[in-house]
């Protein structure tokens, strides 16, 4: 079997069945772009390699239970991003909570597994429904209909800057609402897309 020619979904099924060769293909396919992504932010080769390695180790450990709500590529880049945030957070000497306010806190994979995705989606839906009408409309056009800033601006007869501002405000409100509800959606790969520009 030519593993290199298999689609991502097929490789994931094989990995879930403990196929090391399929895992190696995924590793080789994504290691370099993930490393470059990490290095661009950390500017440290060893720490960047460690971050990517930790993500792949975690992927293998969770291979039998992992359920993706987005593509594997999205999942891996998101996971590396939070590994980087964890490393940055650990390197900071500040003890105040203000310096960490905008940085999602690391959570063990086991905790993420326990989280109920439906509950997170429900909490997000409730938060979206609390947005002002125009802000909600812009958010939904962006996240549910996957329209670009330019497309939304044209459809609603608004400037692109207005759309960007409204979307940024919407995302800020949603993050705040979910933090207050003691939910940690930024650590759940399936929800990250809805809360980031």
Automatic annotation (TrEMBL):
Record keywords, A-Z: Sigma factor, Transcription, Transcription regulation
Q: Does the UniProt entry include the keyword Endoplasmic reticulum? A: no
Q: Would you indicate the residue range of the signal peptide?
A: none
Q: Which SUPFAM superfamilies match?
A: Sigma2 domain of RNA polymerase sigma factors (SSF88946), Sigma3 and sigma4 domains of RNA polymerase sigma factors (SSF88659)
RNA polymerase sigma factor 70 region 4 type domain boundaries: 123-174
Q: Which InterPro entries match?
A: RNA_pol_sigma-70-like, RNA_pol_sigma-70_dom, RNA_pol_sigma70_bacteroid, RNA_pol_sigma70_r2, RNA_pol_sigma70_r4_t2, RNA_pol_sigma_r2, RNA_pol_sigma_r3/r4-like, WH-like_DNA-bd_sf
Q: Which domain of life is it from?
A: Bacteria
* CDD domains xref list: Sigma70_r4
Domain called RNA polymerase sigma-70 region: residue spans: 26-93
Which family is it part of?
Belongs to the sigma-70 factor family. ECF subfamily.
NCBIfam families associated with the record: Sig70_bacteroi1, sigma70-ECF
PANTHER family referenced in this protein's UniProt entry, alphabetically: RNA POLYMERASE ECF-TYPE SIGMA FACTO, RNA POLYMERASE SIGMA-70 FACTOR ECF SUBFAMILY
Protein name stated in the entry: RNA polymerase sigma-70 factor
Specify the species: Chitinophaga hostae
């Amino acid at each position: 079997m030519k593993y290199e020619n298999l689609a991502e979904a097929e490789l994931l099924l094989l990995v879930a069945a403990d196929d090391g060769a399929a895992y190696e293909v995924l590793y080789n396919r994504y290691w370099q772009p993930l490393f470059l992504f990490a290095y661009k932010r950390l500017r440290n080769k060893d720490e960047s390699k460690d971050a990517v390695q930790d993500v792949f180790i975690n992927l293998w450990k969770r291979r039998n239970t992992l359920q993706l709500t987005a593509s594997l590529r999205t999942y891996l880049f998101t996971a590396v991003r939070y590994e980087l945030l964890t490393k940055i957070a650990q390197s900071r000497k500040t003890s105040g909570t203000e310096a960490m306010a905008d940085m999602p806190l690391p959570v063990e994979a086991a905790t993420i597994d326990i989280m109920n995705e439906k509950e997170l989606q429900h909490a997000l839906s409730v938060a979206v429904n609390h947005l002002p009408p125009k802000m909600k409309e812009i958010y939904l056009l962006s996240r549910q209909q996957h329209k670009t800033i330019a497309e939304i601006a044209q459809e609603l007869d608004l400037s692109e800057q207005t759309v960007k501002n409204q979307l940024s405000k919407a995302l800020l409100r949603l993050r705040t609402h979910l933090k207050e509800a003691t939910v940690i959606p930024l650590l759940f790969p399936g929800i990250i897309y809805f809360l980031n520009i």
